[in-house]
Fold this protein.
Amino acid sequence: MRELLTRWRDDPGGTYRLWFLWEERLKNFRSIRRGVAQVVAEIEAGTFGNVYKGSSLETAVGAIAEQRQIFKGADHAFLWKPKLRIPDIYENRDNQLAFARCLAACACCSGEDGVIAAIRRLDSQAVKGLGPAVANLLYFHHPTIIPPFNTAIVNGYNALTGAKVKLGRWGEYLAMRAGILALNAKYRDLLSNDLGAIAGFLFDIGSGRYPPPPLADDETARKAWENDLAQVRAEGAKSEKALAAARQSDLTHTEVQAWLRDLGRSLGFNVWIASNDRNRAFANGRLSDGCLAALPPAIDQAPGADVIRLIDVLWLERGTSKVVGAFEVEHTTSIYSGIVRLLDLALGSDLHSPNGLFLVAPDDREGEVRTQLARPAFSRIGDLQVRFLPYGELKANREAMARFGQGMKAVEAVSRVLV
């Protein structure tokens, strides 16, 4: 196990380096929690409706499915299957409420006992077609208590332990969870308190990336496994391309942040760089060079400040706490999460300019951005004048704007209102 875990952690194409250590992963936690809260609010208010397509649940689960690797396909369990009439949370009001109350209870409780009790109450409702896939929603509230769930994770767990966990049953999931916690405790020094790490490990085994070690203490079986593992390691070198692509994506994102940083300073604004990006290397220095070391107290102590700190770039009026420009750079990441961070700034305080919210993305993502904003979950967005700033316009005009521009007018001129 230790040999396998060590190989897995070093694998450039494995979930540990491509997903678990991905900096954007943690930035998406709050936005997904907010999406789940919207689902609960709509169900309790009786406005959720009776279809998955276009619902707040589709929005939240879609944001989860956009996570790299292990959450791809997370929406399958929630898609309405008309012939089977499952999952039965769209036509049955009592089942819908039971689902919402489980989500709400897990969001509010802080300990393991409360989370497990909420799951057992939902299980007792016997909602047809609504099984442990719900754990993928709960993981983002309690990553140290609830491991993610999908077919590959189950297959990986069974292959590693010799268990016979079946899909679709909460009792089976909770038994697997107990085994996962035991494994995580035993090899904690190579894993994490965040159960996403061991879930990623099981996913890579279950999806066939790594062969599990033999269950029996058989020297022949072990030798065969070591040969298989050596082959996987050799193939893993090819995966460096995948990691290189991911790094290039991060580099492009950082470069655009630097464009906005330099433009903001040239236009006379104080600039804030997202707290988790401040120390990124860029141009023989750090991305945050020349920027604010801390947000003004009025913002730093405002509701939702932990999310505001993660907005990619903020421009602030010098000498005040007023945010005149908030920029979310969405190179390849979830547009949904960026929108939620801007909404937290706009709706959580009066410290922003009404016309200063920008989604910055490649030119060909405008349609994707507009599709996200059309979701019912963002019905209030029309009042906020969110703008789309294409990379092409920013790249072509940033030097001229820096030399001749004043205030926000130049940036507004090359961007487009999204509603």
